[in-house]
Amino acid sequence: MKVLAAMSGGVDSAVAAARAAEAGHEVVGVHMALSKNRDQRRTGSRGCCTVEDASDARRAADRIGIPYYVWDLSDDFHDLVVEDFLTEYAAGRTPNPCVRCNERIKFASLLERATLLGFDAVCTGHYASIRSEGPGGAPSLHRSRNDAKDQSYVLAVMGPEAVGRSLFPLGDFEDKQAVRAEARARGLGVSTKPDSYDICFIADGDTRGFLERSLGEAPGEVVDPDGTVLATHTGTHGYTIGQRKGLGIQHPAPDGRPRYVVDIDPARRQVVVGASELLSTRELHATDVISFEELTEGRPVHAQIRAHGEAVPAVIQQVPAPDAPGSLLQVRLDTPVRGVAPGQTLVLYDGDRVLAAATLERRA
User: Fold this and answer.
1) Which of 115, 162, 229, 323 suits 330 as a labelling partner, its CA being 20 to 30 A distant?
2) Is 6 annotated as a binding residue?
3) Residues annotated as region Interaction with tRNA (predicted)?
Protein backbone atom coordinates (compact mmCIF):
# COMPACT_ATOMS: atom_id res chain seq x y z
CA MET A 1 0.00 0.00 0.00
CA LYS A 2 0.95 3.62 -0.42
CA VAL A 3 1.01 4.95 3.16
CA LEU A 4 1.27 8.49 4.53
CA ALA A 5 3.00 8.38 7.92
CA ALA A 6 2.17 11.26 10.26
CA MET A 7 5.45 12.07 12.04
CA SER A 8 5.15 14.34 15.07
CA GLY A 9 8.86 14.29 15.88
CA GLY A 10 8.42 11.88 18.78
CA VAL A 11 9.53 8.31 19.28
CA ASP A 12 6.09 6.73 18.78
CA SER A 13 5.42 8.09 15.29
CA ALA A 14 9.01 7.40 14.23
CA VAL A 15 8.80 3.72 15.20
CA ALA A 16 5.35 3.45 13.59
CA ALA A 17 6.69 4.85 10.30
CA ALA A 18 9.70 2.53 10.46
CA ARG A 19 7.47 -0.50 11.02
CA ALA A 20 5.20 0.47 8.13
CA ALA A 21 8.21 0.77 5.80
CA GLU A 22 9.62 -2.54 7.05
CA ALA A 23 6.26 -4.20 6.31
CA GLY A 24 6.78 -3.39 2.64
CA HIS A 25 4.51 -0.37 2.29
CA GLU A 26 5.50 2.62 0.16
CA VAL A 27 5.80 5.15 2.98
CA VAL A 28 6.04 8.92 2.84
CA GLY A 29 6.55 10.88 6.08
CA VAL A 30 4.73 14.13 6.77
CA HIS A 31 4.98 16.50 9.71
CA MET A 32 1.91 18.62 10.44
CA ALA A 33 2.84 22.19 11.33
CA LEU A 34 -0.03 23.18 13.59
CA SER A 35 1.25 26.33 15.30
CA LYS A 36 0.81 29.75 13.73
CA ASN A 37 3.86 30.88 15.72
CA ARG A 38 6.78 29.80 13.54
CA ASP A 39 9.22 30.57 16.37
CA GLN A 40 7.44 28.37 18.91
CA ARG A 41 9.86 26.30 20.94
CA ARG A 42 9.28 23.21 23.02
CA THR A 43 9.21 23.74 26.82
CA GLY A 44 10.59 20.55 28.34
CA SER A 45 7.91 17.90 27.83
CA ARG A 46 5.19 20.42 27.08
CA GLY A 47 3.77 21.06 23.66
CA CYS A 48 4.32 19.34 20.35
CA CYS A 49 4.56 20.17 16.63
CA THR A 50 7.26 22.78 17.30
CA VAL A 51 10.27 23.75 15.18
CA GLU A 52 12.39 21.23 17.09
CA ASP A 53 9.82 18.50 16.51
CA ALA A 54 9.84 19.12 12.76
CA SER A 55 13.63 18.76 12.73
CA ASP A 56 13.48 15.56 14.80
CA ALA A 57 10.89 14.13 12.41
CA ARG A 58 13.09 14.93 9.40
CA ARG A 59 16.10 13.19 10.96
CA ALA A 60 13.94 10.13 11.74
CA ALA A 61 12.62 9.99 8.17
CA ASP A 62 16.18 10.23 6.82
CA ARG A 63 17.23 7.36 9.07
CA ILE A 64 14.28 5.22 7.96
CA GLY A 65 14.98 6.13 4.35
CA ILE A 66 11.61 7.59 3.38
CA PRO A 67 10.63 10.89 1.70
CA TYR A 68 9.61 13.62 4.14
CA TYR A 69 7.50 16.76 3.89
CA VAL A 70 6.09 19.43 6.20
CA TRP A 71 2.44 20.37 5.68
CA ASP A 72 1.09 23.62 7.08
CA LEU A 73 -2.23 22.76 8.75
CA SER A 74 -2.11 25.66 11.18
CA ASP A 75 -5.24 27.35 9.79
CA ASP A 76 -7.25 24.15 10.05
CA PHE A 77 -5.92 23.49 13.53
CA HIS A 78 -6.75 26.99 14.75
CA ASP A 79 -10.24 27.00 13.26
CA LEU A 80 -11.25 23.43 14.07
CA VAL A 81 -9.46 22.76 17.37
CA VAL A 82 -8.38 25.96 19.14
CA GLU A 83 -11.53 27.95 18.32
CA ASP A 84 -13.69 24.97 19.24
CA PHE A 85 -11.86 24.74 22.59
CA LEU A 86 -12.54 28.41 23.33
CA THR A 87 -16.16 28.28 22.18
CA GLU A 88 -16.88 25.22 24.31
CA TYR A 89 -15.37 26.74 27.46
CA ALA A 90 -17.25 29.99 26.85
CA ALA A 91 -20.45 27.91 26.76
CA GLY A 92 -19.67 26.27 30.11
CA ARG A 93 -18.62 22.96 28.59
CA THR A 94 -15.45 20.88 29.01
CA PRO A 95 -13.98 19.83 25.65
CA ASN A 96 -11.09 17.46 25.00
CA PRO A 97 -8.89 19.14 22.35
CA CYS A 98 -6.98 15.89 21.68
CA VAL A 99 -10.26 14.25 20.65
CA ARG A 100 -11.04 17.16 18.33
CA CYS A 101 -7.53 17.11 16.85
CA ASN A 102 -7.76 13.40 16.07
CA GLU A 103 -11.24 13.80 14.61
CA ARG A 104 -10.79 16.97 12.59
CA ILE A 105 -7.08 17.17 11.79
CA LYS A 106 -5.37 13.77 11.86
CA PHE A 107 -8.31 11.78 10.52
CA ALA A 108 -10.17 14.38 8.49
CA SER A 109 -7.90 17.10 7.09
CA LEU A 110 -4.88 14.79 6.84
CA LEU A 111 -6.81 11.82 5.46
CA GLU A 112 -8.58 14.04 2.92
CA ARG A 113 -5.25 15.34 1.62
CA ALA A 114 -3.81 11.83 1.61
CA THR A 115 -6.73 10.58 -0.48
CA LEU A 116 -6.36 13.38 -3.01
CA LEU A 117 -2.68 12.46 -3.40
CA GLY A 118 -3.43 8.80 -3.98
CA PHE A 119 -2.46 7.32 -0.62
CA ASP A 120 -4.25 4.19 0.56
CA ALA A 121 -3.86 4.71 4.29
CA VAL A 122 -2.55 6.97 7.04
CA CYS A 123 -0.11 5.59 9.64
CA THR A 124 0.28 7.12 13.12
CA GLY A 125 2.01 6.33 16.40
CA HIS A 126 -1.21 6.02 18.41
CA TYR A 127 -1.57 3.20 20.91
CA ALA A 128 -4.58 1.31 19.58
CA SER A 129 -5.28 -1.76 17.45
CA ILE A 130 -7.29 -2.39 14.30
CA ARG A 131 -8.66 -5.89 13.72
CA SER A 132 -11.00 -7.55 11.27
CA GLU A 133 -13.42 -10.18 12.52
CA GLY A 134 -13.53 -13.15 10.15
CA PRO A 135 -12.79 -13.31 6.39
CA GLY A 136 -13.76 -10.06 4.72
CA GLY A 137 -14.93 -8.59 8.02
CA ALA A 138 -15.02 -4.84 8.52
CA PRO A 139 -12.05 -3.46 10.47
CA SER A 140 -12.81 -2.47 14.06
CA LEU A 141 -11.01 -0.30 16.61
CA HIS A 142 -9.66 -1.93 19.77
CA ARG A 143 -7.67 -0.97 22.82
CA SER A 144 -3.89 -1.24 22.77
CA ARG A 145 -2.12 -4.00 24.68
CA ASN A 146 -0.48 -1.16 26.63
CA ASP A 147 -3.32 -0.20 28.97
CA ALA A 148 -1.39 2.73 30.44
CA LYS A 149 -0.92 4.37 27.03
CA ASP A 150 -4.11 3.22 25.29
CA GLN A 151 -5.53 5.94 23.02
CA SER A 152 -8.62 4.21 21.65
CA TYR A 153 -10.73 6.68 23.65
CA VAL A 154 -9.44 9.75 21.78
CA LEU A 155 -9.51 7.86 18.46
CA ALA A 156 -13.11 6.65 18.74
CA VAL A 157 -14.45 9.81 17.07
CA MET A 158 -12.63 8.96 13.83
CA GLY A 159 -15.43 6.57 12.86
CA PRO A 160 -15.37 3.27 10.98
CA GLU A 161 -14.51 4.66 7.54
CA ALA A 162 -11.30 6.30 8.77
CA VAL A 163 -10.41 3.18 10.80
CA GLY A 164 -10.51 1.20 7.58
CA ARG A 165 -7.86 3.50 6.09
CA SER A 166 -5.52 3.70 9.09
CA LEU A 167 -2.52 1.82 10.44
CA PHE A 168 -1.53 1.75 14.13
CA PRO A 169 1.70 -0.29 14.26
CA LEU A 170 2.20 0.27 18.01
CA GLY A 171 -0.98 -1.50 19.10
CA ASP A 172 0.81 -4.70 20.11
CA PHE A 173 3.52 -3.10 22.27
CA GLU A 174 3.06 -3.89 25.96
CA ASP A 175 4.87 -0.82 27.28
CA LYS A 176 6.61 2.37 26.21
CA GLN A 177 10.06 1.07 27.11
CA ALA A 178 9.73 -1.58 24.41
CA VAL A 179 9.02 1.18 21.87
CA ARG A 180 12.08 3.12 23.01
CA ALA A 181 14.21 -0.02 22.84
CA GLU A 182 13.14 -0.63 19.25
CA ALA A 183 13.88 3.01 18.38
CA ARG A 184 17.40 2.61 19.78
CA ALA A 185 17.89 -0.63 17.85
CA ARG A 186 16.84 1.18 14.66
CA GLY A 187 19.25 4.05 15.34
CA LEU A 188 16.48 6.63 15.77
CA GLY A 189 17.74 9.64 17.71
CA VAL A 190 14.34 10.27 19.30
CA SER A 191 14.57 7.10 21.40
CA THR A 192 15.14 9.10 24.61
CA LYS A 193 12.97 12.12 23.76
CA PRO A 194 10.42 12.84 26.52
CA ASP A 195 6.73 12.44 25.80
CA SER A 196 4.69 15.56 25.19
CA TYR A 197 1.77 16.15 27.49
CA ASP A 198 -0.92 18.66 28.40
CA ILE A 199 -2.60 20.73 25.70
CA CYS A 200 -0.18 21.24 22.82
CA PHE A 201 -1.26 24.81 22.02
CA ILE A 202 -0.85 25.86 25.67
CA ALA A 203 2.85 25.14 25.99
CA ASP A 204 3.22 26.66 29.47
CA GLY A 205 0.43 24.43 30.85
CA ASP A 206 -1.58 27.41 32.17
CA THR A 207 -5.01 26.58 30.74
CA ARG A 208 -6.84 29.09 32.91
CA GLY A 209 -4.47 31.87 31.90
CA PHE A 210 -4.87 30.98 28.23
CA LEU A 211 -8.65 31.13 28.53
CA GLU A 212 -8.55 34.47 30.35
CA ARG A 213 -6.23 35.98 27.73
CA SER A 214 -8.35 34.65 24.87
CA LEU A 215 -11.86 35.21 26.20
CA GLY A 216 -11.34 38.21 28.46
CA GLU A 217 -13.25 38.91 31.66
CA ALA A 218 -16.95 38.37 32.29
CA PRO A 219 -17.43 38.90 36.05
CA GLY A 220 -20.11 36.97 37.87
CA GLU A 221 -21.01 35.14 41.06
CA VAL A 222 -20.05 31.90 42.76
CA VAL A 223 -23.21 30.60 44.46
CA ASP A 224 -24.40 27.57 46.40
CA PRO A 225 -27.30 25.40 45.12
CA ASP A 226 -29.78 27.70 46.94
CA GLY A 227 -28.44 30.77 45.13
CA THR A 228 -26.56 32.27 48.07
CA VAL A 229 -23.62 34.31 46.79
CA LEU A 230 -20.33 33.02 48.20
CA ALA A 231 -17.78 34.82 46.05
CA THR A 232 -17.23 36.50 42.71
CA HIS A 233 -15.27 35.41 39.64
CA THR A 234 -13.86 36.98 36.47
CA GLY A 235 -15.34 34.46 34.03
CA THR A 236 -17.14 31.12 34.07
CA HIS A 237 -14.64 29.86 31.48
CA GLY A 238 -12.10 29.58 34.29
CA TYR A 239 -13.99 26.71 35.91
CA THR A 240 -14.77 23.07 35.19
CA ILE A 241 -17.20 20.61 36.72
CA GLY A 242 -15.61 18.87 39.71
CA GLN A 243 -13.08 21.65 40.38
CA ARG A 244 -12.26 22.11 44.07
CA LYS A 245 -9.40 24.59 44.23
CA GLY A 246 -9.31 28.20 43.15
CA LEU A 247 -12.98 28.92 43.90
CA GLY A 248 -12.24 32.19 45.72
CA ILE A 249 -14.48 31.34 48.70
CA GLN A 250 -13.13 32.89 51.88
CA HIS A 251 -15.12 30.95 54.49
CA PRO A 252 -15.85 27.23 54.98
CA ALA A 253 -19.20 25.58 54.32
CA PRO A 254 -21.53 25.32 57.35
CA ASP A 255 -20.85 21.57 57.55
CA GLY A 256 -17.11 22.05 57.10
CA ARG A 257 -17.01 19.85 53.99
CA PRO A 258 -15.18 20.79 50.77
CA ARG A 259 -17.10 22.46 47.96
CA TYR A 260 -16.84 21.56 44.29
CA VAL A 261 -18.06 23.13 41.07
CA VAL A 262 -21.29 21.26 40.32
CA ASP A 263 -22.76 23.47 37.56
CA ILE A 264 -21.76 26.32 35.26
CA ASP A 265 -24.28 28.79 33.82
CA PRO A 266 -22.55 31.20 31.39
CA ALA A 267 -25.82 32.96 30.50
CA ARG A 268 -26.27 34.03 34.14
CA ARG A 269 -22.53 34.22 34.72
CA GLN A 270 -22.86 31.88 37.67
CA VAL A 271 -20.65 29.11 38.98
CA VAL A 272 -22.56 26.78 41.30
CA VAL A 273 -20.64 24.97 44.05
CA GLY A 274 -21.82 22.25 46.40
CA ALA A 275 -21.05 19.01 48.20
CA SER A 276 -19.27 16.12 46.47
CA GLU A 277 -22.39 13.95 46.25
CA LEU A 278 -23.89 16.46 43.81
CA LEU A 279 -21.19 15.44 41.33
CA SER A 280 -22.25 11.79 41.14
CA THR A 281 -24.56 10.39 38.50
CA ARG A 282 -25.57 7.07 36.96
CA GLU A 283 -27.37 8.50 33.91
CA LEU A 284 -25.45 9.78 30.89
CA HIS A 285 -27.07 11.65 28.00
CA ALA A 286 -25.12 12.25 24.79
CA THR A 287 -25.57 13.42 21.20
CA ASP A 288 -23.50 13.49 17.98
CA VAL A 289 -23.14 9.72 18.09
CA ILE A 290 -20.50 8.03 15.91
CA SER A 291 -21.21 4.30 15.79
CA PHE A 292 -18.99 1.46 14.66
CA GLU A 293 -21.99 -0.87 14.64
CA GLU A 294 -25.71 -0.69 15.33
CA LEU A 295 -26.52 0.04 18.96
CA THR A 296 -29.48 -1.61 20.65
CA GLU A 297 -31.41 -0.76 23.80
CA GLY A 298 -30.69 -3.04 26.73
CA ARG A 299 -27.21 -3.94 25.50
CA PRO A 300 -24.54 -4.25 28.23
CA VAL A 301 -21.48 -2.09 27.52
CA HIS A 302 -18.61 -0.37 29.30
CA ALA A 303 -18.72 3.44 29.32
CA GLN A 304 -15.67 5.72 29.58
CA ILE A 305 -15.84 9.51 29.97
CA ARG A 306 -12.15 10.44 30.32
CA ALA A 307 -9.08 9.58 28.27
CA HIS A 308 -7.41 7.75 31.13
CA GLY A 309 -10.49 7.07 33.22
CA GLU A 310 -11.99 3.74 34.12
CA ALA A 311 -14.55 2.13 31.83
CA VAL A 312 -17.66 1.48 33.94
CA PRO A 313 -20.18 -1.33 33.29
CA ALA A 314 -23.40 0.13 31.90
CA VAL A 315 -26.54 -0.58 29.87
CA ILE A 316 -27.79 1.34 26.84
CA GLN A 317 -31.23 2.70 27.72
CA GLN A 318 -32.02 4.67 24.56
CA VAL A 319 -30.44 4.88 21.12
CA PRO A 320 -30.66 7.97 18.89
CA ALA A 321 -33.59 8.03 16.52
CA PRO A 322 -32.56 7.54 12.88
CA ASP A 323 -32.28 10.76 10.87
CA ALA A 324 -33.02 12.84 13.97
CA PRO A 325 -30.12 15.22 14.65
CA GLY A 326 -29.75 15.99 18.34
CA SER A 327 -31.62 12.93 19.56
CA LEU A 328 -30.12 11.33 22.63
CA LEU A 329 -28.07 8.29 23.41
CA GLN A 330 -28.85 7.40 27.04
CA VAL A 331 -26.70 5.09 29.13
CA ARG A 332 -27.24 3.92 32.70
CA LEU A 333 -24.12 3.07 34.70
CA ASP A 334 -23.96 0.19 37.16
CA THR A 335 -22.13 2.42 39.63
CA PRO A 336 -22.11 6.24 39.85
CA VAL A 337 -19.27 8.31 38.41
CA ARG A 338 -18.21 11.80 39.50
CA GLY A 339 -17.52 14.96 37.60
CA VAL A 340 -19.46 14.33 34.40
CA ALA A 341 -19.38 17.54 32.36
CA PRO A 342 -21.14 18.62 29.16
CA GLY A 343 -18.70 18.58 26.26
CA GLN A 344 -16.79 15.53 27.42
CA THR A 345 -16.57 12.54 25.12
CA LEU A 346 -18.43 9.33 25.97
CA VAL A 347 -16.97 6.15 24.46
CA LEU A 348 -18.71 2.79 24.67
CA TYR A 349 -16.80 -0.50 24.60
CA ASP A 350 -17.59 -4.17 24.22
CA GLY A 351 -14.59 -5.69 25.95
CA ASP A 352 -11.64 -3.96 24.28
CA ARG A 353 -13.58 -3.11 21.11
CA VAL A 354 -14.94 0.39 20.50
CA LEU A 355 -18.69 0.47 19.80
CA ALA A 356 -19.41 4.20 19.63
CA ALA A 357 -18.38 7.70 20.63
CA ALA A 358 -20.66 10.62 21.50
CA THR A 359 -20.62 14.06 23.15
CA LEU A 360 -22.04 14.32 26.66
CA GLU A 361 -24.81 16.87 26.98
CA ARG A 362 -26.01 16.56 30.53
CA ARG A 363 -26.32 14.21 33.47
CA ALA A 364 -29.61 13.18 35.04
Assistant:
1) 162
2) yes
3) 149-151
Owning domain of residue 230:
217-274
Residue 156 in this model has a pLDDT that exceeds 80: yes
CATH of the domain at 249: 2.30.30
User: What pTM value is reported for the model?
Assistant: 0.90
Q: Which of 274, 299, 318 is the last residue of a domain?
A: 274
10 assigned ligand-binding residue: yes
CA dihedral sign, ordered 189, 193, 199, 201: negative
Q: What is the pLDDT of residue 45?
A: 46
Q: Tell whether residue 109 is among the known ligand binding residues.
A: no
CA dist., res. 231 & res. 221, Å (int): 6
Residues 47 and 146 occupy one common structural domain:
yes
**DSSP per position, 92-110:** T----HHHHHIIIIIIIIH
| 48 tagged catalytic | no
**Residue 207, domain member (yes or no):** no
Q: Is residue 238 part of a domain?
A: yes
Which residue of the set 49, 98, 101, 123 is catalytic?
101
